[in-house]
Each structure stands twice: as structure tokens, then as C-alpha cells.
């Protein structure tokens, strides 16, 4: 198989995974893979040039879009989808403690969670706040 086709397959996989995560990290890698595919199509067998061009494109996109994403996050009307989890009910799948994170299911998603008191598997919880990757929960109903 031609190397440019492998780059395009890799780019396709990265773009599909990006659509599932919505983080923009894999989008830039996918675009870098497309650039590498174009380089290989124009100059076959220039692997070093492909890698350098792909990496440069990824770095440029990452550097120049960081201020843009910060501006979006700082806007007053911006609301992260994870913020909607606060106040929702969930179910403990693995025991949760203050110093030992556990797993809770809120809606159709599973999250790492912490609590001020120990919560056992099967207990119902409510999300009181969120960290960057961890939900803070408390026991629901007493």
C-alpha cells in the first residue's frame, strides 16, 4: 500500500475519534496527517519531509488556536456541557471516598468521582461540583 494512502487512513481514524471526543487535539493531528499524505503524493518516499511538515502544521495549529479557544471559554455566554452535570443524579459503580476516587454513572456517562464521605456501590448520588476530570458528589436523600 502506498504511504500516502496510509497517511489518509490514519487521518480518517483521527478525525472520527475527534468527532467522538470533541477536544480538537486529534483534529490537528488529523490535519497534520493529511499534509503528510499530500507531501508523499507529490514527493514519494520523502518520509522525513512528511513527518516534519505534519509536525509543523500540528504545532502551528495548536499554538495559534490556543488564544482563540481561551477567548471562547472566557465569553460570558459560554457554558461547558460538563457544567450541566451539576445537580444531576447518578449511581455509584465503584466505591467513592475523599482520598480515593471511585466511578459514578451520571446519565449515560461514567465519571471519576470524589466525595467527602465514603459512598458504596449502588448508592444514589447528586453531583455538587466538577473539577477538570473529576466530579464531586454527595449522597442523595440523607
Strand order of the largest sheet: 1-2-3-5-4
What is the averaged pLDDT score?
A: 85
Tell me the number of helical segments per DSSP (H or I, 4 or more residues long): 3
Judging from the principal axes of the Cα atoms, what is the shape? elongated
* N-to-C series of helices and strands: HHHEEEEE
Strand content: 15-25%
Number of strands: 5
What's the main sheet like?
Answer: 5 strands, mixed, barrel
Relative helix content: 40-55%
Mind explaining what this structure looks like?
By secondary structure, the chain is α+β, with helices and mostly antiparallel strands. 46% of the residues lie in helices and 21% in strands. It contains three helices and five strands; from the N terminus they run αααβββββ. It has helices spanning 3-21, 25-42, 47-74; strands at residues 89-94, 102-106, 109-114, 124-130, 134-139. The protein has a five-stranded mixed beta barrel. A hairpin with a 3-residue loop joins strand 4 and strand 5. The protein is elongated, with a radius of gyration of 21 Å.
Amino acid at each position: 500500500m502506498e504511504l500516502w494512502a496510509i497517511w489518509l487512513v490514519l487521518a480518517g481514524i483521527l478525525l472520527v475519534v475527534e468527532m467522538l471526543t470533541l477536544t480538537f487535539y486529534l483534529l490537528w493531528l488529523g490535519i497534520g496527517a493529511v499534509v503528510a499524505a499530500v507531501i508523499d503524493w507529490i514527493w514519494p518516499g520523502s518520509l522525513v519531509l512528511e513527518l516534519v511538515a505534519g509536525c509543523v502544521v500540528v504545532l502551528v495549529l495548536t499554538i495559534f488556536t490556543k488564544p482563540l479557544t481561551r477567548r471562547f471559554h472566557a465569553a460570558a455566554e459560554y457554558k461547558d456541557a460538563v457544567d450541566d452535570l451539576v445537580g444531576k443524579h447518578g449511581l455509584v459503580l465503584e466505591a467513592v471516598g475523599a482520598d480515593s476516587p471511585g466511578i459514578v454513572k451520571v446519565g449515560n456517562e461514567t465519571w471519576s468521582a470524589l466525595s467527602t464521605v465514603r459512598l458504596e456501590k449502588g448508592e444514589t448520588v447528586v453531583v455538587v461540583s466538577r473539577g477538570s476530570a473529576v466530579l464531586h458528589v454527595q449522597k442523595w436523600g440523607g
